[in-house]
Amino acid sequence: MTESLPPDACPTVNGIPVLGLGTWQNDDPDQCAESVRTALEAGYRHVDTAQAYDNEEAVGEGIARADVDREEVFLATKVWTSNLAHDDVLETARASVDRLGVDSVDLLYVHWPADAYDPEETLPAFAELHDEGLIDAVGVSNFEPTDLEVALDVCDAPIVANQVEMHPLLPQEDVREACENYDVQVVAYSPLARGAVFDRPEIREVADEHDATEAQVSLAWLREKGAAAIPKATGEEHIRDNWESLALELDDEDVRKIDSIEETDRQVDPSFAPWN
User: Fold this and answer.
1) Residue 157: which of 181, 130, 122 has the closest Cα?
2) What per-residue confidence (pLDDT) applies to 5?
3) Considering only Cβ atoms within 10 Å of each terminal Cβ, which end of the chain, N or C, has fewer?
């Protein structure tokens, strides 16, 4: 594997850097800020957070600490399900931007189509924020194809991304097909299946062939499927290991071997999920 990659090594898909830093459960403020700073100075240009993660202020601090211009960072956050009534979207999104310490965010997601979510109420508020310039683009998260179709029909601002759990144990064929049809970018959270990919012999075999890690193979596989990925990492070693996945190119045989995995293992499955 390549020892060091420059910041411009990360390609973009539909304007979104294909590799980002996930911050779920990174709720120690100083650790979170340092993780963000470390990632940005290693070359990352995509940082993902959410209201529910309770770390937006720390993420903003990490961006401020990094020797990287804010304009170079693709910053995304998400509105939680209890805040999806029209006026609550407006109020809490502005509070998120304030906590992040920025003038605007590049992408604002509907975190789940659940609880207070009502397409006719929620999405016009997102469009208002887009018109105001507080958000550059609208995203949805955990949307099934039918949810996505409704959202695209209702929202006056472009919906550019659908963030879903995706990894070799949950390849999300139906979601990917719908997103491709509607020109919506898939962003993969939990791209390592919270470590479950490390136990798959197919992934270990590909990793051994390329002198790579299982994490790097999984991230490269996602890239082959056209998805951006936001692996969570807190320590410098894992942050840099994930970054080096950009140097790994899988061939067709590698992809077929990973695609042959028959086991399905969904890691995030709350009772309010739209597929339940």
Assistant:
1) 130
2) 73
3) C
In the structure, what pLDDT confidence band is assigned to residue 4 with cuts at 50, 70 and 90?
low
Question: Residue written as tokens 């507080």?
Answer: 134
pLDDT value at 268 more than 50: yes
As a whole number of angstroms, the distance between CA 88 and CA 203 comes to: 44
121 and 156 in contact (C-beta within 8 Å)? Answer: no
Q: CA geometry: angle at 25 spanning 19 and 30, to 5°?
A: 90
53 is an active site residue? yes
Q: Which of 53, 109, 117, 189 is catalytic?
A: 53
Cα gap 30→144, rounded to integer Å: 36
Average pLDDT estimate for 161-190? 98
102 φ, ψ (degrees, to nearest 5): -125, 170
DSSP state of 158: P
Q: Which residues of 72-86 are buried (b: 16+ CB within 10 A; e: fewer)?
A: ebbbbbbbbbebbbb
Length, in residues, of the chain: 276
Q: Which of 153, 166, 83 shows the shortest CA–CA distance to 120?
A: 153
CA–centroid distance for 177 within its chain: 18
* Cβ proximity of 48 and 21 under 8 Å: yes
Query: What is residue 7's predicted lDDT score, i.e. its pLDDT?
Result: 61
**pLDDT tens digit sequence for 10-27:** 899 999 999 999 999 999
Whether the predicted pLDDT of 1 surpasses 60: no
Do residues 197 and 166 lie in contact, with contact meaning Cβ atoms separated by under 8 Å?
Answer: no
Q: In a 10 Å sphere around its CB, with 0-12 CB exposed, 13-18 middle and 19+ buried, how is residue 195 labelled?
A: exposed
Residue type, 24: W
